[in-house]
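Q: What would this complex look like in 3D?
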Amino acid sequence: MEKIVLRKEILGRIDEIKGADIIVGIPSYNNARTIGHVVKAVQAGLAKYFPDRKSVLVNSDGGSTDGTMDVFHQANVEDFQSILLHHRVGSFFKIATPYYGIPGKGSAFRTIFELSDALDVKACAVVDSDLRSITPEWIELLIKPIIEGGFDYVAPLYHRHKYDGTITNSIIYPLTRALYGKCVRQPIGGDFGFSGRIAKFYLTKDVWETDVARYGIDIWMTTTAIVNKFSVCQSFLGAKIHDTKDPGADLSAMLYQVVGATFDLMEEYSDVWKGVRKTEPVPVYGFQYTVGLEPVSVNIDRMIDKFRLGVRELGEIWKEFLSKEIVDFLYTAERLPKDEFTFPDEMWTEIIYSFAITSHKKVISREHLLKSLTPLYIGRTASFVKETRDSDAIEVEGKIERLCGVFEERKTFLIKKWNNERG
Amino acid sequence: MNIFQRIIIEPFERFFERVLQFLPNFITALLIFIVGIVFGIILKGLFLKFFNAVSLDKFSERSGMIELMRKGGIRDSLSVLLSRIIEWITIVVFAVISLKALEVSTVERIFERILLYLPNVFIASLLLLFGYLLGNFLGRAALIASVNAGIKVSGLIGRFVKFAIFIFAGTMALEQLGIGRETVVIAFTIIFGGIVLALSIAFGLGGKEIARTYLEKKFLKEEEKDDIKHI
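A: Here is my prediction, written as structure tokens for the whole assembly.
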């Protein structure tokens, strides 16, 4: 695997630092408003929980024009006494560098992996630069299981609003869990801890020109860790509150990248997931508590309208690869009055599996296939919002568990169709 | 005896002489034709390897070409199809050369004209094929993008993109074949310009309320947005 060439001054900085124990990476793109808080929280976390470790804080930036890198350099915890009882004694360094490659989070992570490899670190963590709810404890929870628990990969576990992370809840979590048999609740959470060993392993993979370089990086890291038998755990981080992720990003592009990366992984690891028959829990670190979350406003009518438009215009395309039963259901749902609109788990599961099979068999253009999923996803989300309008967090979690159960039950359908002759 | 010689032997000798004169040309033509077949098969193999090396089939899968080919009843992959076309073009070219080697003036003239016209037919066929594939592909892409953007007339947009490309490819193909060169270009310009003008007038008259509402929403009041964070 070809390495990226780090800038001359960064190479000089690596020579100066020589080696480190911990690296914390913050990928960014125009996050001047929020990155200062993230830097301070990380710095306080390192000082409080790892005072005797040599730590490096890295900002891997995608060419921000709002002075994100300047804010990163300037942000510092001025008075540790007000936060901590003791001053940190270990050494702490900062590196800010623009990343190379396809613009996206994956390319930013690649630079962080390269730096952790060059500094031969024991543990790494990556946190989003738009986080508003990060606390110093996040660093302890993401790093400690690696350094003291012997784990290689720490996935986050958050309390999120019931309508937050809908791609995770309706597609990625149930699908990943059914496929690989590990209950990693937030496989695309965005904030992870991992060992230096696994960072080196990630660098050996030739994926940096694919959707992994964009939004696909999170699911790729989690799946690669599970499938390659690295020890995985989860850490409870509390609430996840962040700015809207890339407000300009359109939903279908996001869905295309995340679901596309998941389907690519299904292709690569088909021999692994076909043999997985049961799911098992993943150890959880951290004290779990309930948190207050910001309200989320949703326009269900507009979502159902988008679903209806999709069925009317894209129905003919879906007929090429969805079963008659599903197509009939979609046309029926399209005619239902809005207050009776529903999208059952069984139908949704079969739709996702059918899209995966179609992508595998290359029946239609992959981009068209994945982008045509958007109206169905919106319809499913509208139904979920309707059903859980009066539900509390526990009830919503129960509904997601039920959906996971359906994904697991129907896995035989997926395997059978996947194994059928192409065409 | 003389009569017999004049009626039977002499014409037979003349025919035999002509056959002897024609035979080397015939054998040359036959050899050229056989060489053409062998050369065609070799070229097919070489191009197949080349297309596999540049991952042409992966491109055809990603671009949706393979899907359209299957719809059209073609079961082969794009690399196999193109290699076969190259093989047959080679064989046809060698067949024409071999016929020329026969040195029959009428056949020679006809095939010379065919040979000169053949590249035009080939290019026109390619233009039509790619126009068809591209029209379907971009038409569908436009349809899906419009649906995802929530545009109510998505179907119309998809069909417009598809048929605009079909018409454009057809015009180019006819121009390549030299059929009514100026007429086709003028007709295309009139039709295309007419469609754009018709759409502008239709939007201006029929859609002025929609346009006003849209502009008001855009500039006077922010459209109500969902707070859902999908990832």
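A: To summarize the key features: The two ends of chain A are 33 Å apart (CA to CA). Chain A has 18 helices and eight strands.
Q: Very helpful, thank you.
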